[in-house]
């Protein structure tokens, strides 16, 4: 019998604890052997989860009445405690060997004729992780028979970073305002912070860096430090430690000193006083993240000193308290000379940090972004992973989808991360997958792990798009165990988040699993990077923005060819930063994988890929294929109608419909751009020909006038129609379609400066009315703000008159690009 579908906001994420049909009874009692706060949370969570899933919560049996080795009256019990405590209580039980810090064991244990369920952690935090794992197992399998699970995290550092500002905004955050800060202060109400910590704990994450890497010096003011203490108090029960990002210039800007030289004794004394104050407020403070000498942030280079000098100074102060320094390798010159064919931003991290290998203190971790540039849709693994043998490393990822659709589009990132984690660096001519290096295994380093920029906000479902939560879940799963597959991570998430009906799991999988590749197809394939506006919102198509400036995200498109030559033979030499086997693979056109071809090589548009297709034709084809695939996500999602709650169903349907239409904006922008650059036509005749479209310029206009769009490729003929200095404007056209049923799309622009309204009329009669009040990224008429309104199933006959009436509002001149008409039955025509 289907379960009733309650409206759900998404706030519970994967911790919904949906009812399960128990295959076998569970213990009705529990014994909690430890008083640590995380174990108390574990007990609380166990009761909460079981009550919700099975309708009954186990009764807590006081430890005082619990006879060692025997349940009170020989009833089955849940037994929660550290390995040492459980061993004492159940002398016949043997803990699994090799449990690492934070690891846990889940075991069914026959004890005097009864079956106990043991949740034992190496540490109290492990008990909490074990409890979440047990509840997950129950949610996925509806039973807890013959449990024999031992699990340990891959690495000690498993952090979520937030780029929150004290004023409550979040840099590159898309799920609303900060849960931590508002108006310059730590929030009074931190309820959401507790819920976040619980979510993170449920996937084994153990630290949060709460503020922007472009840090405010005010993070170290006495008032903020006191507030951070309150944040830590709320997260501690979930085993999550607080860290902060610091501005290296703070001694000057906050301390009023004349210098921030890390060798200056007074500067060191200033930092010592701050570190002490932090540990007073937060005894288990986790440490600092440092972005220095990067994108305008000051750093040790000002004094001719290296990152090691800066990191070690801070590390020395944190070490006695058990804190670490996460020093970011995202250090590069953003004033590169575009004319210098040898200049290459991708080289920077290795060039700067490789010579410092072995010079960092033991509690410094060099935090390296997954790729050498900056969270683009596809990058090779950073060569720096193999470039440091005697230095702790952490991998930095982005859960927040900065260059990957900003949670307005669905992109499941686990397959992308897996690609990097599993990539074999062949360091020292042996198998050294990146994951083995960051975990510390490959080169025997004590510290290491993962930090992902998550940027949840106050929105009910944390990240805006319910499907984006698969990325947070997936990040936690991989940080715990990077050997899991993207498929199993997706399916487990779908089951817990939406329900275990196989139809649900299969539909969600069929959207998530291909979504990265689909996004790559309609944005920047072949290693071109995302091709978005790199000096703007990082959202819509704007390829040229990456070229001819100091930021170094170039792909060097000319009229004859495209791609960055990073070879050692003729290019920037970046490829030479990899160990020899990997370098050889990238250096040769024969062995360089197609998906990174243009990241590594500059080739003519007519260069043939491994399957014989030319580069230019691949660019066209992939964009069309990507747009079609994005449309299929809508159809997949629609199969869930009635199988999940209406609230989340409708929300995701809206997102998938928007994505399907937005993929067309991308497709058109990028294919037009490369058509103009290369002068080579699409051999399928699609680029530049859009059946069913009537552009503004082809309509009869009253009041509307054309305005140039930058970049030109984001609108038909590089122009939009705008209604300026008028109360309303009209654009009309006479349709000559054979009688039939059609969908009508209006491609318009939705700016934040106002909320224009539009009316669509057919032969003078109202067809649709809508308001352009979406909050899209960007602020001007371009690809960021281009959006489609679709009216489905309209009966048309030849000679019908279609009119679009725009009413400007605020600073928004009711701008539009074109209307498109295609038969309702012909889905493929949506792609026009
Ligand atoms: C990206 C991002 C910035 C961020 C930077 C960083 O460039 O756009 O907002 O500050 O990365 O990681 O430091």
UniProtKB/TrEMBL annotation:
Swiss-Prot/TrEMBL keywords: Carbohydrate metabolism, Glycosidase, Hydrolase, Polysaccharide degradation, Xylan degradation
Pfam families, sorted: Glyco_hydro_67C, Glyco_hydro_67M, Glyco_hydro_67N
InterPro entries attached to this UniProt entry: A-glucoronidase_C_sf, GH, Glyco_hydro_67_aGlcAse, Glyco_hydro_67_aGlcAse_N, Glyco_hydro_67_C, Glyco_hydro_67_cat, Hex-like_dom2
Signal peptide start and end residues: none
Residue ranges of every copy of the Glycosyl hydrolase family 67 catalytic domain listed in the record: 140-462
BP terms from Gene Ontology: xylan catabolic process
GO molecular function annotations of the record: alpha-glucuronidase activity; xylan alpha-1,2-glucuronosidase activity
Quaternary assembly: Homodimer.
Family membership noted in the UniProt record: Belongs to the glycosyl hydrolase 67 family.
Protein name: Xylan alpha-1,2-glucuronidase
Lineage: Bacteria, Pseudomonadati, Acidobacteriota, Terriglobia, Terriglobales
